[in-house]
Model the fold of this input.
Amino acid sequence: MKSKWLLILLTGIMFAALAAACAQKPAGPTTLTVITHDSFSASPDVITAFETANNAKLVFLKSGDAGTALNRVILSKNNPEGDVFYGVDNTFLSRAISEGIYEPYLSPEAANIDSQFMLAPNNDAMPVDYGDVCINYDKAYFAQHNLAVPTSLEDLTRPEYGPQNGSKDGLLVMENPATSSPGLAFLMATIAHFGQDNYLAYWKQLKQNGLVVVADWETAYYTNFSGSSGKGPQPMVVSYASSPAAEVVYASTPLTESPTASITAPGTCFRQIEFVGILKGTKNLALAQKFVDYMLSVKFQEDMPLQMFVYPVNRNAALPDAFVKYAQVAQDPATLDPALIAQNRDKWIADWTSTVLQ
Amino acid sequence: MDTLTVDHVAKNYESQPLLIDLSLEVHSGELVCLLGRSGSGKSTLLRIIAGIEPADSGRVLWNGEDLTSVPTHRRGFGLMFQDFALFPHLDVRQNVAFGLALQRLPESEIASRVDSALESVNMRGFARRRVTDLSGGEQQRVALARSLAPRPRLLMLDEPLGALDRALRGQLQEELREQLHRTGIPAIYVTHDQDEALALADRIALLHSGRIEQSGAPGEVYARPASQWVAEFLGMSNLLPGEVIGTAPLTVRTGYGIFKPETAPEPRAGERGRLLLKPYGADLIPAAQDADTLSGKVISSTFQIDHYLVKLELAPGLVFDFTMREQAKEGETIHLKLSPESQIWFKEAQ
Amino acid sequence: MTRRPSRWLNNLLWVVPLIFLGTLFFYPLVTILRLAFSETFARVEPIQASTILHPLWFTIWQAVLSAALTLLAGLPAAYVFAKFNFPGKQLLKVLTTLPFILPTVVAAAGINALLGPRGWLNMGLEQLLNVTSPPVQITNTLAAILIAHVFYNIPIVIRVVGSAWAQLDPKMEQAARVLGASRTQVTTRVTLPLLRPSIIAAALLVFLFDFTSFGVILILGGPQFQTLEVAIYTQALSFFNLPVAGLLSLVQIMCTLVVTWVYSRLARGMNIPLLPCLKGEGMRAPRLPVEKVIVALMIVFLILLQVFPLAALVSSSVTRFEANRGERGPIQTGFTLDYYRALFTNISNSIFYVSPARAALNSLIYAIVTVLISVTFGLMAAYALTRARHGRWLMDLAIMLPLGTSAVTLGLGFIVAFNGPPLDILTFPLLIPFAHSLVALPFVVRTVQPALASIPASYRQAASVLGATPWQVWTRVEAPIISRAALVGAIFSFTISLGEFGATSFLARSDMITLPIAIYRYLSQPGALNFGQAMAMSTVLLLVCGSAIFALEKIQGTSA
Done:
């Protein structure tokens, strides 16, 4: 008998869920759908401000990492699921543009953006933020072992950063460029630094020096990196220049100093720039343009750093204290022409894979 | 001469005593029928003998050797389950060969013994059939063949012929008896059917309230049931409540007259109990006498081969059965004289 | 003559699950494969054979090895759970099931906390052996993959085989014993053959899970290991090389086809009618010394393998990571509930913040709907499968194929197929439990069908003779008999849905965030608080799932 009641209860819950789902049909405000990656975040008041000002309802469709999101957009480009797409970075930009997914739009806010970020030739997409992929290190480890922090990519091949005490693993852990965007960015930093002809020789040396490669950032940072809560074995990890700031903001007990720091020496970091664009075929072009403007405006740009730990591209946007104090900006970070990246991306990854992983 | 001894075995089931201080012996060439109501612990006793379940106390011995630490598969006993427990993943042949294969016998010997085992239960043509496709009776015969094929030292059968039709049952009973006597394998045959027990058994053991209530040759048990329960269980229902009024000779007063049964063990004056009046040994007399006489109205009188079965109503609702040589008229009131040997006094249990 | 369910009823039973599979599986799959091989994505580069053969070979042999190990460890565990009573059995049974729900990143964190370079095992050994480097190095090795696969899939063997084992008539084994079989002989000649249907069903499920394994390979195995699934992922999502991804998917599907065919051959004619015994019959405390040793060993083994990683997660969720770990001395730790408190505040002031209660509720709603869908369709399919005279292999294949098909390919298929007419349902909330049901359905069918097939025909006939309609035969005779198997299916459906990440993250709207998505969100940012919250949220997931399984088992226990 009990099971009968359970069935009734379950059915009830199911219908309640259905009803709740159906009740959400939009009425009144125009819905603007933004497709983005899992890392996207914003403050509620910033979103509400846009919604009230434009009588709009913002819906965010998040789907995996940047690559997955881009795939989703490309596959549905004939009948776009959304109006705006945020999250393509400079390693994917040319690919996205060549697929013709964007409706070009030059935002008036572009006037406040440094030209180094404006990488889309026909303004297919607008830059929104940037972040530098840099090596982070565990300050305590280097202090305890009286070890100098490496200051160049070449330094990483030196024996003191290689395997210690009979272990086969060295001190640096990175992400697989084939499955992780910081890993790809770091690969590109070496290509920019050593050139297309020589970078593989460098990787051979890194491999010999006990380079550890894992699949994704979460594993690298939380399982392998000694400076995080995971207390892993490697004191150096490929992460972001802003990660030390996040360690302070999201410390388990208030910190005055970050336990980690980034190596920001010239040429050791790669700058990732993220873009927003309007999807071709949108039925809400005007509203979409307004939202792009809004993302580039000071209000949104100042909200971003602590939401996504990225830097605003709008030069008028002020940085939060934590950023000023703990986040580092790479000195002279590496960059590569998006067109060159689009052309060689697959080949670079394949060559890297056969050099380092096989 | 092999002997199985069950020595003061006790077993609780869900903290209720099921077997209490049970002792039993079975010898070579002997077929012992274990009789008892369902739930009396007959199957449990077999499982203890087989070593499937441990006894709480007491021992099982084979020729004086304690079997407590001998695991089931080394005891060399056979057990035929009430629901046969045929292996559904094996066919008839494989089921019968199961025990033989475990003895690592040569293939040819296994084949011939399986064939003869199947032959003996008239199942020769069924060797390749799936056991799940067999009828109840066929399954029973396969199970019997499976138990017999490895030539166990002792065979236990748990209500093995329950589902068979009368003719086949009679035939199998005869075959089983013949086979057991030929091989000399001692056997314990569990049943709740006293007719089957009478037909088969060399000895009957009656299991009641956790003990063997009586054990002996069928004729002996019938002639002298040891307790009121045994009498009732064997279908003797002519029981009259009464009281001992004299001990030498034993005299019992009942509501239907004074009776002088054969001597009972240590009768005491004034003790209450039941008087069993066996259905045979009654003579028709013209008028009631002062002792050993029963009067009643004939309700029915039916002819059965060489005697009449008379249903005699002593009082409304109280009907006794008697067998008589003469016919009695229905509706007539008659008087019966009962011999002392046909009366047994059971004193009430304390 | 007994009444049989009419033919059209049987067909109907089969048609409904088929419509479900056709719509949610075959349609998107065919759509994406057609697109992948169409002109749009045609590439001129020739494909090297090694691109396919290399991952194919590794996929097969790691799956075979993993499945074999899982069976090897799982069968004794199933035996212990099916045959013996011991203190804490219920709890241990629930705990051993829990790994099944863990998202890979979280499971990896748990396994690392136990076996990693700084894990409990290595820390202990370092102290004991007085060495400075970790003696046991399993991260990024095949061993890590195998351990993780056993960790994840042992619940399948314990539950699927265990439920059949518990229903096995103890008289079968007793009869064999009396006929002279030793314990080992009873196991090899009677018990295992009788359990064969459920053992190969479990083996099939475990194999397909290992075969399409993605997260475990990627995260615990490391980048040097490539299965078909990982290759499909990289080809499709990193290289945008849909034709190669499509080709790899086809190879994967062909393999599933072969495996399912082999399964059908093995399973043919194996529906052994058994007299189902009552729950708990023959269940007792271990008595013989050998039994006590086996039970004790399995308990220790399960606690080490299944419970310790969970315990490590829970302990991480209440361990303070000292602020001053920076420059000075060894890491100081202490007890804290801060991470749980933090879960209830929107610290980052994000619009996507979700409270643990809300996330748990969302997860539960999806999981319950998944159970309803998959159990309903699963029972129908199992029933139809039991009655079918022809084409059982095709039915089996249709049901099993979703389990052996790349999640990436299917996910992309969803996007192409359901983003517009005739089925514009991509943002429809029910799509998520429907997607979960694709994976859950094979579990329900594989657990229920053997139970259904083992009901002797005489039971149905007896009920019909007594005047029961086919529906009444079902509700009064068959359903109660298979309820325990159905419960196993339901528990798997529930846990599959509760722990599912990939499809949910792909399809969920940001206002219906589930526990695994919330966990990933915390884990994707640096900071001790984020990590701690991820562990706390994982603990919530474990608690929600554990109590739900417990409740399900209790309900079944009282109503049976």
About this structure: The first helix of chain C runs from residue 7 to 36. The two ends of chain C are 31 Å apart (CA to CA).
